[in-house]
Amino acid sequence: MGKMPHLSLSRLAQSYGPLISLRLGTQLLVVGSSPAAATEILKTHDRILSARNVPHVAPAKSPKLNHLSLAWATECNDQWKYLRTICQTELFSSKAIKSQASLREKKVMEMVGFLGTKEGKVVGVGEVVFATVFNGLSNVFVSKDFISLENEGVGGGMKELVRGIMEVASAPNLDDFYPILGGFDLQNLRKKSMELVGRVCTMWEPIINDRRDRKGGDFSSQRDFLDVLIDNKFSNDQINNLLLSAQRAPRLGKSDPGRDANTPTIHTTSKNALKATEGAAEGVDLAGEAFVAHSGSTGITQKWASSNDKILIIESKPIVAQKLDLAPNFWSVGSSPAAATEILKTHDRILSARNVPHVAPAKSPKLNHLSLAWATECNDQWKYLRTICQTELFSSKAIKSQASLREKKVMEMVGFLGTKEGKVVEVGEVVFATVFNGLSNVFVSKDFINLEDEGVGGGMKELVRGIMEVASAPD
Length: 475
What we know:
Blueprint: H1 5-16, E1 19-24, E2 27-32, H2 35-44, H3 63-66, H4 78-92, H5 94-99, H6 101-116, E3 122-123, H7 125-142, H8 156-170, H9 174-177, H10 189-214, H11 225-231, H12 236-246, H13 262-276, E4 285-287, E5 290-292, E6 305-307, E7 310-312, E8 323-326, E9 329-332, H14 337-346, H15 365-368, H16 380-394, H17 396-401, H18 403-418, H19 427-444, H20 458-472
């Protein structure tokens, strides 16, 4: 089986078909490796095939704990159905997932903000992504971040702890192949597993006890999964078992002890995004893992570099705010948050009129009064248009209602990229198509670009680029 059993099983499936059986020691292993086989196992015959052999390293191997486990229960009794119902309702239902959308978005924005403060510095992107995913899960469960993005070696300790649990859990174990040896723990894997699990449980044990002590008090914060479990009279052992099963979601790769499985994807995305950037199309110096792009024509210099699991954040040097005389036209340029606030908020009414470029359709008097962006005066028609757009597109309620759509489009992109393993993919094209389809679905509930097409988004991208180039060309 080797160190990458999933790849070994995939190769065997290519030779022997989507449903095969293997003899591992005294144990019979049946492997389904196609969508049809997965549907048969997990949906059509899920009740018959729901029981599972519990590995010896799992705490649930103990009869005292097995009935508390959702993942490793040996039978589908009423206790197990009760656990499943709670998890389904509070974590995995459409309503629960939708209610968590703002939390996921908040954590992603925290990550983006943190990376923005590291301009010009080397950042372990793998560590930051892991911390973001882990904190997102921990906030769903116990409303608390376990990893601070500001710490040196972000997520390192927790990441190694989770990796340790996953490595012990997935290591080939003689006790599983030959159950008669189970009591001897010849490889010390169960001992290591219990030590690591104990360290994890130690972290949230004080949170559980504190929450129990405060249950009689007043709660102003939003309820989380821990509140639900305590309200349903779950013991600490039950809570530990459920949280342990759930916190393994950010699974880590074992292919390289110094790198997690997400990092190569981040590198590929960063490189392709750079190559897809119009300003960086020329002057890209690529040497192994390091490259620098220059876009001096726009007055902005951008620098990128990556090595192993590190990536150097973009260094951007914007043009200085200044006044410009362009022939008979006078331009004032504001390029700081304070200047933007003055222009767009404090004095927005005075500064809302704008010079309509001759290439804009709204330059025609017949069309100008229909335009939101290029109207020459703030009359009642313009206010009406603005109110509709504000209410239906840009209000907090509207943005929140679109969260599931945005997430759906991102997951479609991730699923599409997952089908392209080992193939060259134009990530810039795929990202453009995802963003464009997200917008088109908000407007007319329809995708305009098919991810499966050759040259994904190419035609539409060139069309949009053509409009932008014409609109921004000096005239």
